[in-house]
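Chapter review: from sequence to fold.
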Amino acid sequence: MLDVKGKDSDKKFKIQVYVEDCQGCGVCANECPVDALEMTPIKKERDAGENENEKFFHELPNDVIGSNRLYSVKGSQFKQPLFEFSGACAGCGETPYVKLVTQLFGDRMVIANATGCSSIYGGTFPTIPYCKNKEGFGPTWANSLFEDNAEYGLGMRLAVDANRRQLRSNVEKLLEQNIGDELKEKLKWSLDNWKDLSDEAKENVAGYQRTP
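The token string follows.
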């Protein structure tokens, strides 16, 4: 575990390796710019307590970005990946991009997957690599049998748009009813910002989700 340098010097940084899932390709150790990783036998890591370290790691808070910008090379890597342990060929060049896009947008992703390698490592039971965060949100994944994922995805997009229009219509009808001022104010704010993707909009949604 290392001290974070710069503005977030009060924090610690650690790369937690899942020793039971390592495929032994060596890419991480070879590409690490500061030689912080090295390949060692799995028994040595088990004896060193790495399985217990994994359990502790899962108890830590996720997405601690600190002073970094989320949509930057460095900042994005502090976000929890919602694509893990893909089972793709060792050294696969496609899966790092999938991992990155789930870090940026995974809690609200809808995936229309094209048949191919991505459907094998992405949707073969029981080893599906897509996962959810502690709030229960993660990518929604589906695969079409044929190479028509563009049309398949368009259908998903049209369905989402139709559902959102129906929801907006229902909320507008609700505002005409005799409801409390606090609820009316929040619903009006949601209507005014229903396409907003700012942090404030996300916090507003999270507030509704936490309400019993």
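Two observations follow directly from the output. The mean pLDDT is 86. Strands lie at 2-3, 12-13, 110-113, 140-143.
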